[in-house]
Write the structure tokens for this entry.
Amino acid sequence: MRGGSVVEEVLGMGGRPDIAIEPGDLPFGDPRNGNGLPPDANEREADASQRAWWTSAPIQTIVGLVVVGAAFVWGLPSFASYGQVWAALGDLRLELALALVVVGALNLTAPSWSQLAALPGLRFRPALLVDWVTSAVTNAVPGGSALAVGLTWSMYRRIGFGRGAVARSIVVTGVWDIFMKLSLPLLAVAWLSTERPVGPGLIQAAAVGAAFFVVVAVLAAVLAIGPTASAVVGAALDRLPGVGDGWIERLDSMRADTLALVRTRGLRLTFWTLAGHLNVYLLLVLCLRSVGVTSTELSAAGILAAFAFGRLVTALPLTPGGLGVMELGLTGALAAVGSADEAAVVAAVLIFRFATFFLTIPLGLIAWPLWTRSTRRLPPPEHADVVDAVEGSGAAGVDLRSSGSSSADVASTHSPRGALRSR
């Protein structure tokens, strides 16, 4: 099954109504006019005419292909020829191969644990399937990151989680992930500075990360402190066309529920988010060591600095999953902070990207039919408000899995998620 057909089926365009996204079920309001009718053709044409030409899908696809082609045809061979890279792959140390497989397998499950912490009541199997499907879309489809967010929303709603619970989980896991990515350059530069002088490029990357970290932290604090920020942002959203109204109440309620979730599950979420990032870093270390790059040639601190820089480079979504950009940026950073053979560095980066990028696409193609088969007999999420209220209680500290209360019975009896659990 091609990646595009997966997306079409998920969006209800492939003849399967399993997970059709209805306009009224979108996380950010109903994109219709006040009378409940879709915008007319003139409005759509006016909106399209106001878009910059470089934001169109064909142009973005062409730019992505050019970037990927330049990276693999010109960029990586500037470090070492593919013949030299193949020879370096032939020197793979078999004693480290098992550790590489184990850490790589753990990496494919790591995001699911963060989602389990952020979405009370979620079980591991559906979390894993959702992560594999959305990761495949992110890495295979232009603009896949935005599509993956909507797909995550739709898939969790399909198994009965309420709008508020799903929105909170997406926001909280996203913010925690951003904090980790922005703090890594600071930690890496501080660690590397104890071993050797740090170059201006890494210092600038750390400064950019620090600036964005402060901005995100301030915005998060302002939104969390009180209802004033919710009122300001909500009033601005209410004035926008096509997003509905009542945003002040929605954001204030979401702020209170998010704070309750963070109070009860913040440490767990922080642990699993940090563990996920460290697992990816450990995977990169093992990739380098397996092709013969020693700690003398490239230290653990240098690898962390290059890893952090590579994550920042892919913040600009030029290609799906940072394809080409990540390979080139990470190879350049590793070559800059160490003295390892560049052919071995390129070989390690390609192994790393195979495990973290390419492998997610076939896994997504496997996960999709498993998901559709698991949810085929589930009714539409008619009782989402009931489930959302229960999940809100769970966020406030009620463990629904061990509770014998009637609210847990309501969730199991009236929600599609309860049917999925009982199978």
Summary: Confidence is low (pLDDT under 50) at residues 1-49, 382-423. Residues 247-290 form the longest helix (44 residues). Residues 103 and 282 are 8 Å apart (CA to CA).
